[in-house]
Amino acid sequence: MDNITFPSADEQQRILNDASTAIKRNAFLMRKAIEEDNMRDALKHAAGMLAELRTSQLQPQKYYELYMLVFDQLAYLESFFSEERGKGRSYGELYEMVQYSGNVLPRLYLMVAVGCLYIKSREAAPRELLKDLVEMCKGVQHPTRGLFLRAYLCQRAKGLLPDTGSEFEGPESGSIHDALDFLMTNFIEMNKLWVRLQHQGSARDKEKRERERQQLQDLVGKNLTYLSQLDGLGFELYRDQVLPRVLDQITSCRDDLAQLYLMQALIQSFPDRFHLGTLEALLGALPQLQPGVKVHSVMAALMDRLARYAAAATTTTTTSSPTGTASSSSGDPRVVEELAALDAFHKFKEAIAQVISSQPTLPAGDAVEMYTALLSYAASVYPGQLSYIDEVLAAAAGALAGRGRGLGGDARAERQLLALLGIPLSKYGLPASLQLREYPALTRLLRYGSHKELAVKIVQRILDGASAPTTTATASPSKPSSSSPAPAPTPSPTPSPSSSSSSSSSTVICEVSQVAALFRFIAPLVADPEDPGEVGGAAELDDEDLDEEQVLVARLLHCLASPHPDTHFAILTTAHQQLLAGGPRRLRTTVPALVFCGLGLHRRLVGGVEKGAEKGAEGVKDGVKVDGKKEEEKEEGEKVENGGEGVEKKSGEEEEEQSEGKADGKKEEEQPAAEPAAAAETAVESAAAAPKLTSSQLLQFLLAAIEPLCGGPAGQPLTALRLLLACGHVASEEARLELLSYTFFEEALALYDEALPEQRQRAAALYDILGSLQRCHVFGAGRRASLAAAATSACMRLVAAREQCRALCAAAHLWWQG
Q1: What GO terms describe the biological role, i.e. biological process, of this protein (predicted)?
Q2: Does residue 702 lie within any of the structural domains?
Q3: Residue 628 and residue 704 in one domain
């Protein structure tokens, strides 16, 4: 084992300067001898020039500078040798002559220079001469000197190999097997020398020495590059002769830097189809690498290479020909089939698990990076298989579970995990990603603050309407109602009016299961951390920052909708349950949005009258006789959209019990039609499509949702009062539910008396109460008188006489209506 100590940097610079001067002097004398056609002196000065490369006092980087000076002069010497052949001197004579040089290193450089010309002239068989040169180079075992000597040999011989189809191939000159033997032998010897470089110099310079070794790694990697460029190298030859020897050399060298670089060089040098056929051998070598090797980089490189190969094989490209016509070409779709037949995904997954189990000290960031590469691979090769994505997430969660929240404080690992969690969102879009059962398990490994950052991005993505191209794993389309026109071949959910306040480009989440999953994804935005000691909870945020977060959640609620009222109500119920866990400070912002979403749903619910009218028109076409109420019902629907003013109902008792706006559509089918069978079928479909949700259920739900704002820590009495008034007006004018509307106003008046101590707020709230009551027409005389009396009494309790007068004048209108 070498244990060489280099001089100081200044001393090395002096040695380099002296050697450079000697090289230039000998080069000048060599050129002069060449011009004088003096072969003996030319070889003598060439040997003197090459003798400067015998130094062992220079570190590899400085030795490389010396080598490049000599390399430039050797090109001039080779041109002289070529001219000598034209003067009658054979290359055989020159090859024998240069072997009389006294020192082994100059002699070998000269032999390589003449030997390559000898092969090029076809006077010598490449097989024997290349074997002779590569074996004789073993005479130089100094790591630096031997490495550069073999690099020179490899570079000069690369175009002289007996490759298949080359001019140097033949029964006597050699075949592809001889070319492989030459390059493989040179590669193995160069790798041994390169590994031994780590033992040069003192221990304190190890990091610097490793950096210098890294700069020289391409000298070794060129052998693999030249191997991959051989025309005669087929898959069978690669699988049986090249790969086993390369992997054996990689695993046996036991050097972290060499193993990492050579595995990456192997993956990048040879064709993708070779890796596809030897996947098991490549993966089997990974656990044999040193613990310090960044196996995650190797795995990521291999999976990325195969993913790009599969994507290119299934992509059709269109090009324009010179004549202006377009031509299309596509790759080989069998590549994906072959990957599936090899079960490459599960082999990668098992290899990652084996690497993690064999290296207990593997950093969390490295493990996450491997699973990130596997996830990208699965998303590229199997774009329609969400089950593979879930498998990766489950495996990653299992491998990282023992490290706890925040992955043990590893910031790099957490960044990698955020990148991993972002892949399904960008590749499949949010609706499909919500089907991933294992996604929340990984998000729980993030620190609360990091998870919140991800949650904000998810919500913003929904609000901006960003979504990936539709895949097979998207949310199922909603079932059209019987009263709607014939559906298109691929129906898509239509955003409900409740989402009209959100951006028209927003993504709409229309399934209850998706909503539940979404709230698990964005848990930090709607609830405090489970660990009280964790940073980032609502208690640590000021009102402005918390409101900024909750405004996003409030906007999100308008993107949770379904075309089916029953499903929409279930979505709102699920959202309400999640919001209650957020605490009083969050409810101040989110409850008003939830209430108005519910009011929008109610408007759609009673808007079924319009659908019934449309269905009646269709019934006329089918021979079903209907009465002439369509225009009247349409006007009523428009009034509902404008606030419910002037809505008239014939039977308050019926609306109180049923409260379903689609009842008229069924009642109007009174007269027998020309086609009774069609009419009966239409009636059955209409009954099946009618929602089970009633106005009473929905409004009682809203009453319960408003309750936390009426008092307690989340108390926002003025906001709660206005929400109660809005719901009371809807209960009166849209639902025609007198008792429920009375309850809303009664709660509002009680809240006014108990929770509004400030006079300015009391006056504003009182005018709101009076205005809302004046617009409600459902009340009978008794209940209207009771509410009017309570409102008038409140007017009398105002402090300022001016305010009392104004309020009493407004309250007087309530008695006129009665």
Answers
A1: intracellular protein transport; retrograde transport, endosome to Golgi
A2: yes
A3: no
CATH value at residue 711? 1.25.40.660
Q: How many residues does the chain have?
A: 818
Whose CA is closest to 296, among 265, 273, 272, 264? 264
Q: Do residues 467 and 547 make contact, with C-beta atoms less than 8 angstroms apart?
A: no
Q: Give me the pLDDT at residue 313, please.
A: 74
Residues 51 and 139 placed together within one structural domain of the fold? yes
**pTM (two decimals):** 0.75
Of 620, 492, 631, 627, which is closest to residue 562 (Cα–Cα)? 492
Do 678 and 701 belong to one domain?
A: no
Structural domain includes residue 422? no
Same domain, 613 and 713: no
For residue range 705-727, list pLDDT tens digits in order. 999 998 776 678 999 999 999 99
Look at residues 182, 92, 183, 104 and name the one whose alpha carbon lies nearest to residue 149: 104
Distance CA 415, CA 446 (A): 9
Secondary structure of 303-316 as H, E, C letters? HHHHHHHHHHHCCE
- Asked if residue 573 belongs to a domain, the reply is no
Question: Residue 111 in contact with residue 98, Cβ under 8 Å?
Answer: yes
Q: Where are the beta strands (DSSP E) in 700-752?
A: none
562-620: pLDDT as tens digits: 999 999 999 999 999 999 988 888 999 999 999 999 999 999 998 864 455 455 444 43
pLDDT level of residue 532 (50, 70, 90 thresholds)? low
Q: Taking all residues of the chain, what is their mean pLDDT, rounded to a whole number?
A: 82
678 and 758 co-located in one domain:
no
Give the C-alpha separation, 84 to 79, whole Å. 9
Pair (9, 139) in one structural domain? yes
Q: What mean pLDDT is predicted for residues 512-528?
A: 93
Which of 124, 144, 175 is the endpoint of a domain?
175
Domain that holds residue 731: 695-817
Q: At what angle do helices 584-606 and 608-621 cross, to 10 degrees?
A: 20
Number of domains in the chain: 3
List 317's β-bridge partners, or say none: 329
Q: Do 636 and 729 reside in the same domain of the chain?
A: no
- The residue assigned the tokens 């590549």 is 335
At which of 636, 667, 689 does a domain end? 689
- In a domain, residue 743? The reply is yes
CB within 8 Å of 388: residues ≥ 6 apart? 345, 378, 382
Rounded Cα distance between 595 and 20, Å, is 85
Lowest mean pLDDT among 212-221, 329-338, 498-507: 498-507
Cα(532)–Cα(405) distance, rounded to whole angstroms? Answer: 13
Q: Single out the residue of 232, 246, 230 nearest to residue 281, CA to CA.
A: 246
Look at residue 237 in the predicted model and tell me its pLDDT.
Answer: 96
Please tell me the distance from the alpha carbon of residue 710 to that of residue 772, in angstroms, as a whole number. 19
Confidence of residue 681 (pLDDT cuts 50, 70, 90): low
The pLDDT tens digits of the residues spanning 430-470 come to 889 999 999 999 998 898 889 999 999 999 999 987 544 44
Same domain, 724 and 665: no
Nearby residues of 128 by Cβ (< 8 Å), 6 or more positions away: none
| CA dist., res. 563 & res. 597, Å (int) | 13
